[in-house]
Amino acid sequence: MKKAVLTAAILMSVGVAVAAPAPVEDIAGGSTDDRVARLERMLKAKQASEYETQQRLDTLQQEVLDLRGLSEQQNYQISQMLQRQRQLYEDIANLTSSKAAAAATVTTTDSSGPSSSLGETASYERAVNLVLKERKYDEAIPAFRDFIKQYPESTYAANANYWLGQLLYNKGELADAANAFDTVVKQFNDSNKRGDSLVKLGMIAEKRSDSAKAKVYYQQVVKEYANSAAARIAKQQLAGL
């Protein structure tokens, strides 16, 4: 019974709709064209808003990418600073070992050795002290040169050449610095400064805008001194080429 009443009501509604067509004017009193125009304006406004929002999102995304790149660059620079600091600590540790060996040599010389050994040790220590204690770097350069000239076969010769190269490198005298580091590489295969000297030769090549040559030096360090501090620095330099 309820279904029949509902059906009858629907049919009556349809009949009324057919008999009395909807007016052209909308509820607000505008025509169909007005309504279409308003809808078009609303659509355009929405599209403009969405476009502006998308532009803002694109700008924010680019800013995030820029900040991420800056952060990565800063992390890399901090890592390099830590590596250089670590290398300095190792240099100081090596110097301490050298001074201990020098003290032992002095003791032996006092009892039975020739006086020339004492002169060799004292000359080396004097040059080193000019760097570490007195910070007279310009005076240390000729001191190391004199030592190398007088004692070319000394147990300290490799370290002396490395110190000389580092001092010259710091002054920007790259050609003479390269000669000193190259001496360590070619004449002192067993020296613990050979890997560091190869790294320095790579850095000098970079300063001379010779990336290919620098790459060769760094790769040699990584290959021959795989787990050393020098190899870690070489890998970082390679990543920056």
UniProtKB/TrEMBL annotation:
SUPFAM superfamilies: TPR-like. Keywords: Cell cycle, Cell division, Periplasm, Signal. The keyword Signal applies. Its main location: periplasm. It is found in: Periplasm. InterPro entries: CpoB, CpoB_C, TPR-like_helical_dom_sf, TPR_rpt, YbgF_tri. Residues 1-19 form the signal peptide. Residues 31-104 form the YbgF trimerisation domain. The keyword Transmembrane helix does not apply. Mediates coordination of peptidoglycan synthesis and outer membrane constriction during cell division. HAMAP family: CpoB. Belongs to the CpoB family. This is Cell division coordinator CpoB. It comes from Shewanella colwelliana. The lineage of its organism: Bacteria, Pseudomonadati, Pseudomonadota, Gammaproteobacteria, Alteromonadales.
